Amino acid sequence: MTPDLDSLATALYVKTDDLLKQSPHLAPWRPAVGIAPRLTDAELVTLAVMQALLGFTSGRRWIRHASSHLRYLFPYLPAQSGYNRRLRKAADLIGHINRLLATGTSLWADNVWVVDSTPVECGRSRETAKRSDLAGWAEYGYCASHSRYFRGLRLHLVCTLHGLPVAFALTGAKADERQTLLGILRTEPGLVASRPGQTLIADRHYYGRAFEHDLTQWGFHLLRPARRGEPPRAGSALFKPLRQVIESVNQTFKAQLDLERHQGRTPTGVTVRILQRVLALTSAIWHNDHTGQPTMRALTAYDH
């Protein structure tokens, strides 16, 4: 089967629709009495993923494009304000679908994960920082990988060596990467319990005796480069090529899925736009896996 955007959209719609039929409580809440939405929740999720894959960062431009070119898939499309409102309310549903697709791939059982965080900028000017609804969450931080200061958040990502997102968190720019990773694992006890002997590959910032002790207690084996003054650590010869995997995944989010051009202005708005991009990557990997493509993280077939 040849991968293309239409086939991915159709498969994602069917998967989401089946999920909502089996578990209707996952749908966004709406009154029992009232006008039923003309755009279904399954269509909404599919529309959001297509927006991320096609690179439309503006909701207004996306709805205008979809109205002209995608009517054969979506007979009814809401206005931009209605689309954004529906999307914000569907954040939990998007998270459930992301996990459903991830567990439905052959990559889910990989016994090696890579972990890292990447900046999610949320405005640069001082006036923006003072007036933004993100004040108190977005903050100033430093990205050593790109040698730059930024104001915003950090996306902490745990993924397989093929780039499949396993777990993630969105925090302030100054949040400790080690504590965030431990927090991610604490909120996923089932995931942790099912992975005895799992290997985590991280950079030199994931260090500390107490931190490594907690990972060992959960059955995880941490591989990272030695810090200055430390003796050489096992597996250090493998770090350069394997560490490049997570940097490549971060670049996919930034360059192809416009992670830092999310245009979110509120905590809910930013969160759902990040989820939208994570789901877009997971959907592409899921579809590539099921169609037998040689490169799991290739998005070229879906971005035009």
Elements, N to C (H/E): HHHHHEHEEEHHEHEHH
**3D shape:** globular
Number of strands: 6
The CATH architecture of the domain at 110-261: 2-Layer Sandwich
- Give the helix level as a range of percent: 40-55%
Q: How much strand content do the residues show?
A: 5-15%
- What is the CA–CA distance across the termini? 18 Å
CATH superfamily heading of the domain at 110-261: Ribonuclease H-like superfamily/Ribonuclease H
Number of helices, counting only DSSP H or I runs of 4 residues or more: 11
Mean pLDDT: 90
Radius of gyration equals 20 Å
Structural class: alpha/beta
In the CATH hierarchy, what is the class of the domain at 110-261?
Answer: Alpha Beta
Detail the poorly predicted runs. none
User: How many strands, what sense, and barrel or not for the largest sheet?
Assistant: 6 strands, mixed
Remind me, CATH topology of the domain at 110-261?
A: Nucleotidyltransferase, domain 5
Which tags fit this structure?
single chain; 304 residues; alpha/beta; Nucleotidyltransferase, domain 5; globular
Outline:
45% of the residues lie in helices and 14% in strands.
